[in-house]
């Protein structure tokens, strides 16, 4: 059951949505399951939330109807033709916005029968969800703290002969036993030269003496995701990769130093790349610097000096990752990733940072 305080959280989110939208938008249609959870607190595989500035109506099928009636912070009706027609018939608005990144063209054609002007909008909730409220920050903190314990557990299991897949499975079992809902993504456990592949899939490769171990992991706790990457030098450091490790840490610090409200995202990426350029290593940085995180592992904004989000400005209570990396084919790779909360004066980490890492 959603408590009274939580109900207020979801109603405030709906209010924030309207604050973000231009005044010409009279109504909204929300159907993405993650967005529905964000605005209602209900886990639905299917549903339609119809919003005007004065009215909210959630339409669900019989699988969710009783639960929604009991828990929803908005009015609930069965998802039937008559409910849609009645909503539109008693509404004076002519234009209704929908998220064009999440609604299929086929669905758009279906909506035309209601004789309203359905207006494509590319970011109905993108900007709203990017700014986390206190409720979300608490959930993300719980997820991150569990993840940190999972990383420590992995490190305790490192021994010659254990395989990447075995380590990934041990991590999953540990996190589920500790209260995770699920993993945020398939763990990337990469030994030796396998670490040179940023999106590597763990294999039955056994850990050998003096291997580098790249660990990219994440969990989900109460719907909220966490994400971190570390490298461990097993038994003794690899000379060339140890050098890369120090450069990657410098690049991350250069980006973190700019993590204050008002900074343009492109500047973060360029700051990290400038460090790599000084050491003639930028060609080996092959992905963006980071991303937003919350109800999904990868969400708005993407941190890069390229693309349509490059000019997005950091704001207080954004949660992002900063994860520079360098990858040398057939030798190995280093990536170092932390989650941070943008604060009024800078940022803070979500999990304790070991100075020896």
Automatic annotation (TrEMBL):
It holds the Pfam family Peptidase_M24. Residues 141-344 form the Peptidase M24 domain. It comes from the Bacteria. It is an enzyme of class 3 (hydrolase). Coiled coil: none annotated. Keywords: Aminopeptidase, Hydrolase, Protease. Residues 13-131 form the Creatinase N-terminal domain. Its EC number is 3.4.11.-. GO terms for molecular function: aminopeptidase activity. Signal peptide: none annotated. Gene3D superfamilies: Creatinase/methionine aminopeptidase superfamily, Creatinase/prolidase N-terminal domain. PANTHER family: AMINOPEPTIDASE, AMINOPEPTIDASE YPDF. This is Aminopeptidase YpdF. It comes from Candidatus Rhabdochlamydia oedothoracis.
